[in-house]
Write a structure and sequence with these properties.
The chain is of the alpha/beta class. The chain has 9 helices and 8 strands.
Length: about 250
């Protein structure tokens, strides 16, 4: 089946010098499919264009909470049009970020509500960014109405349990491979098999042993290997399981 990188930013300028080579290395590493994710209107359009050009690449469109204050009614109209594209399989990444670098909280809340409405309208999964805001986010998602992905999950084991109880997907990224990431190891161990995803979030969050470098989808295998080690399962089993979950979640049949 091949691996599925459930969250990457292929449009990022970090890939401008060698994007074709990045994709080739991913294929060589067994990453057959990936979801490239928008963070504003321009990157959402770029994500769709990349998905059009490359087999196995799909797109998600949204405005990141860092840019929530810049979104207008025209922005959401344009996102709605993009969301009708057959290669768009999710709305995201949206969410809440109380880490100090984002838009004002009320702008983030308004943006999240707009993305929830778009996801419901299109019947698409919602990809959530969350930093230092899990309690508020879970309160706002009570009646989301569509599947939810907790992208690059960073919350506690208790938050992971609540998410799993609601049927939300838990997507693990490079930090699960870090030496002192005990809480993420516990999440990886406890996560229901049917709700587990893996991602790189490239070009950031490179896993061990690539930490400190530019991340890329080929490094997904390191994440899969670590999750398999934590769960006491075969690498191939975890790779196939997480890929099957992504295909099911995003409605991809080919």
């Amino acid at each position: 089946m091949g691996l599925f990188d459930s969250h990457v930013h292929l449009d990022d300028a970090a890939f401008d010098p060698d994007r074709a080579d990045v994709l080739a290395r991913a294929r060589a590493a067994g990453v057959e499919r990936m979801l490239t994710v928008g963070t504003d209107l321009a990157s959402s359009r770029a994500a769709v264009a990349l998905a059009e050009r490359h087999a196995g690449v799909y797109a998600a469109v949204a405005v990141h909470p860092h840019a929530a204050a810049d979104a207008s009614a025209e922005t959401y109209t344009a996102l709605e049009e993009l969301a009708r594209h057959p290669r768009v399989v999710a709305i995201g990444e949206t969410g809440l970020d109380f880490g100090g670098r984002s838009a004002p909280v009320e702008a983030q809340r308004e943006a999240l509500r707009a993305h929830q409405a778009l996801a419901r309208e299109r019947g698409l999964p919602l990809i959530m960014h969350c930093r230092d805001a899990h309690a508020v986010l879970l309160e706002m998602l009570t009646e989301v109405g569509t599947p939810v992905v907790m992208h690059a999950f960073s919350g506690s084991v208790d938050v992971a349990r609540e998410c799993a109880a609601r049927g939300y997907f838990l997507s693990l990224a490079g930090p699960v491979t870090f030496k002192r990431a005990d809480h993420l190891a516990a999440v990886a161990r406890e996560a229901p098999a049917s709700l587990l995803l893996v991602e790189t979030d490239a070009p950031v969050l490179a896993p061990h042993p690539y930490r400190g470098r530019r991340n890329e989808p080929a490094y997904l295998r390191s994440i899969v290997e670590r999750v398999a080690e934590i769960r006491g399962e075969a690498v191939d089993i975890v790779g196939e399981m997480t890929a099957a979950n992504a295909l099911r979640l995003f409605g991809i049949s080919h």
